Amino acid sequence: MDAKKNIDAFGAGSLIGFALLLAFNQVTIKVVNDGFQPAFFAGLRSAGAVICVWGWMRFRGRRLDFQAGTIVPGIVLGVIFAAEFLCLFIALDLTSVTRTSIIFYSMPVWLAVAAHFVLPGERIHGAKAAGLMLAFLGVVWAFADRGAGASGETSLLGDLAALGAAMGWGGVALMTRATSLSKLRPDMQLFWCLAVSAVILLAVAPLFGPLIRDLQMIHLWGLAFQIVVVVAAGFMFWLWLLTIYPASSVASFSFLSPIFGIFLGWLMLGEKVGYSLLGAGALVAVGLILINRPARTASRPG
Hints:
globular, disordered C terminus, 0% strand, 71% helix, mainly alpha
């Protein structure tokens, strides 16, 4: 497909499905954290997924593409990816899926701010500026919803980790668009993310405590789901969408993920959802809708 200026029906349907997958992803991480220590779990996921991606490339007859000028950015991309998921897995170990969803899926806010300065044609103005403010206020509200009467598990460290993960996710998207990595295929971009992050995460995992917790079969199935469906297939698809549609528009469809995350956290994990957290989620969702709103162009006379 050629690059497009706006999201079309195919893009919208794909991104809605991906948002639902990401919300369910957080539920599975929360569950599997009971069997694996979070950093070790994240490292195992990257190590397993890089084998899947490499196998896919071999199946398609594609070689590893280490183009000149992409090696250093590729390593940096992998470091950011490792930091993102270390933060996310720790966040889901310390706080609820509902809280993590609202904070983590503020990613388009941080991506839009960065894209304003480094990506041509993705300037902040009008409705996008208002959307950024609303989404930011929603994140602040989620941080403030703690203590007595707060919704679900609360942990300041968990909330900060979710925020760090959101910024890391934005950094990954920006690196794939604004550096020489944009010349690479999505599968090669993902290979860099996974190969570098697997080494880093498995190396630092012993610093975070025992590697195995109360391991059960459901945790092994969850790990397999993470490796094959979420990372190897889902992330590659998302990176491919970034090559077709504007980065901020792709990212902004994640406004659905906080909504899906709150619902799935309540439905599948029995998490309590209060009015305060619902209000924070609504602010983030409305804000991200405004960020995704196409800019009006002046009509020509005649």
